[in-house]
Amino acid sequence: MQFEDFWYVVALSQELKPNAVLSRTVLGEWLAIFRGDNGEAVALQDRCLHRNSRLSQGNVRQGMLSCPYHGWVYDKQGKVVSVPSEGDDHFNPLIEQIDIGSEECTTKAYRHKRCAKKYETREQEGYVYVRLAANPSEEFQPFSMPYYGKPGWETVRVINRFQNTVINCAENFIDIPHTVSVHPGIFRTSRKQKLEMTVERKNGSVLVEYQKETNNLGWYAKFLNPKRKEIKHTDSFYMPNVTSVEYNMGDRRRLFITSQSIPETEDSTLVYTDVTFNYGIWNKIARPFVRWTAQKIIRQDVEALAIQGEAIKKYGTQFANTPADTIHVFVESIVNQIARKKDPRILPNRSVRVSFWV
Q1: How far apart are CA 176 and CA 179, in angstroms?
Q2: Where are the beta strands (DSSP E) in 46-126?
Q3: Which residues lie closer than 8 Å to 235 by C-beta, 6 or more apart?
Q4: Which residues contact 316 (CB under 8 A, 6 or more apart)?
Q5: Which of 226, 227, 231 has the alpha carbon at shortest distance from 213?
Q6: Where in 212-267 does DSSP place strands (E)?
Q7: Could you read off the pLDDT tens digit of each residue along the chain, which spans 358 residues?
Q8: DSSP helix/strand/coil, 351
Q9: Which of 105, 219, 232, 327 has the most CB atoms around its CB within 10 Å?
Q10: CA-CA distance, 170 to 208, in Å (whole number)?
């Protein structure tokens, strides 16, 4: 198993217009994303075979992508279908082979073998996904976003770039102790409340259930939990890059915050976050407040993780852990296992009960 075996978001479906080309980076690989003549998403290595220009800076016409430098044109399979400087001789089978990319271009169906490297794509729930591995160790599926598009549910979708790693972003998104310091008032207020949690590592995932949580919702506490009942709060991490937070405060008071952290480079992570909620008759009214609050909280996290990233560059990743960091220890064990090209699901199941203060 390796990170390239998994699916990663590269765009919102609505971003990928018929004549648009998007530049994306996943696991250090440059990608040019566009729609082919059949309307399906195409992902090519962002490199022209001719003189290594960036295809993402070119133009899309009738589902074909042209390089901005010398005008070479690529179709949805990555096949070069036009070389302006060669005119009609472009289709002469005696032309010297330039490069061999994806398997489609090595078949006898083509009269020549000029073809860019192509990656598999998939669209699901308003996202465009790319998988870098041509022959993955296992057929994983893109993560299914909770209640996306379901009747009675609304989704607010935001995108943010973090100057830090996927693992540190994921840990931040399911970390309660930092919220009092980083998001005072808007999300939580320090009231020296003792919480309990059960942290379980199982099958490549980390599942967290909280107990005795009643009032940590900041500005919107009176709306979300006016009677201060115990909140059903769970956090989850799914390999290799997905976190999901659920708050269930009763009928028509349910909220999911799901983030897919996309590894661009070693210290740059693009995060696509869905805030999906069911507030009954308040859904439409709540939507702008949910978006504003989510983005404000995430901006605070962006700043905090940028500071952490700077310190990590200088001093490394030797962390001092507390019992409340059990979540992080389990997440790191899973990600590190994949980094060693091993399957995290073979790690022994573990369950730990922890008490901590916020």
Answers
A1: 6
A2: 59-61, 64-66, 73-74, 80-82, 118-124
A3: 174, 207, 208, 210, 243, 244, 245, 246, 327
A4: none
A5: 231
A6: 232-238, 242-248, 254-265
A7: 999 999 999 999 999 999 999 999 999 999 999 999 999 999 999 999 888 999 999 999 999 999 998 889 999 999 998 888 777 665 544 444 444 455 555 444 444 578 899 999 999 999 999 999 999 989 999 999 999 999 999 999 999 999 999 999 999 999 998 988 898 877 766 667 788 999 999 999 999 999 877 665 665 666 666 666 667 889 999 999 999 999 888 788 889 999 999 999 999 999 999 999 999 999 999 999 999 999 999 999 999 999 999 999 999 988 888 999 999 999 999 999 999 999 999 999 999 999 988 8
A8: strand
A9: 327
A10: 14
Residue written as token pair 């310190």: 311
Instruction: Return the structure tokens found at 232.
Output: 């059903």
Residue 197, strand partner residues: 210, 354
**DSSP 3-state assignment of 24?**
strand
Q: pTM here?
A: 0.89
Structure tokens that stand for 135 in this block: 């022959």
Give the Cβ contact number of residue 41 at 10 Å: 21
Query: How far, in Å, are 97, 242, 260, 292 from residue 270 at the CA level?
Result: 37, 12, 8, 19
Structure-token pair, residue 279? 């507030």
| Contact status, residue 30 vs residue 21, Cβ threshold 8 Å | no
Report the chain's terminal Cα–Cα distance, integer Å.
38
Are the beta carbons of 148 and 17 closer than 8 angstroms?
no
